[in-house]
């Protein structure tokens, strides 16, 4: 329900995109509202509910009929008091404070790394299981970094009701989308080396970036200078190297996330990964070109069959009509699409494949993956 479409304004419109409440508005102030029909589920908190991922959390919780007995919607002081419709009720957004987590079982965080670093440990201390979308804890030893279709074992034993809090990290969105497709092939033939080139959408940089792309597009078409608040350069009708900070080794942080997180998720410190991450003026959903080198041979027909049977994967690979995955086709969808499945001619025998992958990174790359993790906590 709260899905962000390719053409929507974000910050200004994110509440109006939710359905109008059909029943009398239910107000949430300092206490949590009890949803009458779901009295046995966990108590939830959504941190960063006004953002791109936060809005998608509400949509995914609804779509998957996630059971909960209460829900608390949290954001910054700026949003406190605003009204959000969710499941035909109107909720009031509360300011995130240290007291926000009293009595919370599961806290879904998507308010940026510094907020996670400050409030994640507080929530855990109060007994909540935190599923964090930021990069704050991903590489911390002992913190499971989980894609449910790939490495559910990493969070084994962590359950609501176990008597203590815990932290689980959601991987980087590009990493999730890449590994959804690469892992079934890796299980079959073991990936030795992976070369990834990304084409990343505005939504990956949050609600304000989506708004800026839309605004700039209008401005450029009207012959006006583009407003550059979120990105330092013109985004509409352009593309550029990912805006993450560039490190001493020449890679940017987004690229190094792909390298490090893949090793942790696959529990394989030897896999060689390199990435080039690019922002493209697409509103929503990332695309990635992935080149794989295998230890064992894997021909393209077998690879196609493996992918067709892989959970969460949709194969779109129609050579005769030149129809392959696009960001538009996967927007607001759960599945990650894979196509352009072909033998890499530059590698000997059947030891190399090229694939092209598209996935909605606000959904499978963030909110959906986190809610799937939350489902495994029940
Ligand atoms: N966008 C994606 O595709 C994606 C994918 C994977 C992971 N992530 C991660 O998810 C997080 C959120 O991303 P986003 O794209 O949803 O960003 P966003 O659209 O900019 O939303 C940020 C959210 O954080 C809240 N926030 C900011 N400062 C706060 C504070 N001091 N206290 C409480 N809440 C505060 C904002 O509330 P206000 O509205 O009140 O400012 C808003 O709800 C980031 O860590 C990002 O790296 C994003």
UniProtKB/TrEMBL annotation:
E.C. designation(s): 1.2.1.11
NCBIfam families (UniProt xref): asd_B (TIGR01296), PRK14874.1 (NF011456)
GO BP terms in the entry: diaminopimelate biosynthetic process; isoleucine biosynthetic process; lysine biosynthetic process via diaminopimelate; methionine biosynthetic process; threonine biosynthetic process
Family recorded in the similarity comment: Belongs to the aspartate-semialdehyde dehydrogenase family.
Reactions mediated catalytically: L-aspartate 4-semialdehyde + phosphate + NADP(+) = 4-phospho-L-aspartate + NADPH + H(+)
Residues at the active site: 173 (acyl-thioester intermediate), 286 (proton acceptor)
Oligomeric and partner information: Homodimer.
Keyword list, A-Z: Amino-acid biosynthesis, Diaminopimelate biosynthesis, Lysine biosynthesis, Methionine biosynthesis, NADP, Oxidoreductase, Threonine biosynthesis
InterPro entries the UniProt entry points to: Asp_semialdehyde_DH, Asp_semialdehyde_DH_beta, NAD(P)-bd_dom_sf, Semialdehyde_DH_NAD-bd, Semialdhyde_DH_dimer_dom
Pathway: Amino-acid biosynthesis; L-methionine biosynthesis via de novo pathway; L-homoserine from L-aspartate: step 2/3; Amino-acid biosynthesis; L-threonine biosynthesis; L-threonine from L-aspartate: step 2/5
Pfam families: Semialdhyde_dh, Semialdhyde_dhC
Protein name as catalogued: aspartate-semialdehyde dehydrogenase
HAMAP family named in the record: ASADH
Domain Semialdehyde dehydrogenase NAD-binding: 43-158
Alphabetical list of SMART domains matching this protein: Semialdhyde_dh
GO molecular function annotations of the record: aspartate-semialdehyde dehydrogenase activity; NAD binding; NADP binding; protein dimerization activity
């Amino acid at each position: 329900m709260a899905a962000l479409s390719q053409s929507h304004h974000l910050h200004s419109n994110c509440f109006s995109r939710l359905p109008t409440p059909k029943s009398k508005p239910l107000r949430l102030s300092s206490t949590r509202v009890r949803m009458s029909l779901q009295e046995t589920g966990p108590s939830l908190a959504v941190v960063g509910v006004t953002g791109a991922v936060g809005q998608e959390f509400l949509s995914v919780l609804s779509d998957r009929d996630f059971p909960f007995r209460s829900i608390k919607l949290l954001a910054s002081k700026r949003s406190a008091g605003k009204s959000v419709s969710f499941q035909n009720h109107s909720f009031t957004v509360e300011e995130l404070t240290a007291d926000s987590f009293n009595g919370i079982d599961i806290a879904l965080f998507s308010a940026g790394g510094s907020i996670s670093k400050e409030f994640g440990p507080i929530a855990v201390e109060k007994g909540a299981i935190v599923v964090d979308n930021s990069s704050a804890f991903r590489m911390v030893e002992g913190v499971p970094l989980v894609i449910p279709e790939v490495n559910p074992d990493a969070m084994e034993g962590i359950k609501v009701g176990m008597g203590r809090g815990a932290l689980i990290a959601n991987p980087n969105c590009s990493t999730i989308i890449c590994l959804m497709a690469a892992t079934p092939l890796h299980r079959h033939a073991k990936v030795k080396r992976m070369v990834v080139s990304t084409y990343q959408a505005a939504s990956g940089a949050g609600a304000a970036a989506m708004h800026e792309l839309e605004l700039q597009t209008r401005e450029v078409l009207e012959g006006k200078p583009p407003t550059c608040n979120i990105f330092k350069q013109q985004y509409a009708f352009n593309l550029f190297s990912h805006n993450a900070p560039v490190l001493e080794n020449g890679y940017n942080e987004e690229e190094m996330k792909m390298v490090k997180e893949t090793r942790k998720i696959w529990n394989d410190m030897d896999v060689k990964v390199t990435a080039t991450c690019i922002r493209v003026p697409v509103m929503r959903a990332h695309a990635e070109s992935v080149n794989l080198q295998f230890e064992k041979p894997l021909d393209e027909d077998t690879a196609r069959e493996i992918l067709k049977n892989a959970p969460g994967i949709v194969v779109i690979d129609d050579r005769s009509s030149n129809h392959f995955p696009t960001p538009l086709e996967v927007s607001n969808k759960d599945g990650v699409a894979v196509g352009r499945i072909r033998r890499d001619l530059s590698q000997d025998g059947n030891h190399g494949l090229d694939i092209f992958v598209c996935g909605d990174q606000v959904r499978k790359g963030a909110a959906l993956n986190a809610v799937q993790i939350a489902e495994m906590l029940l």
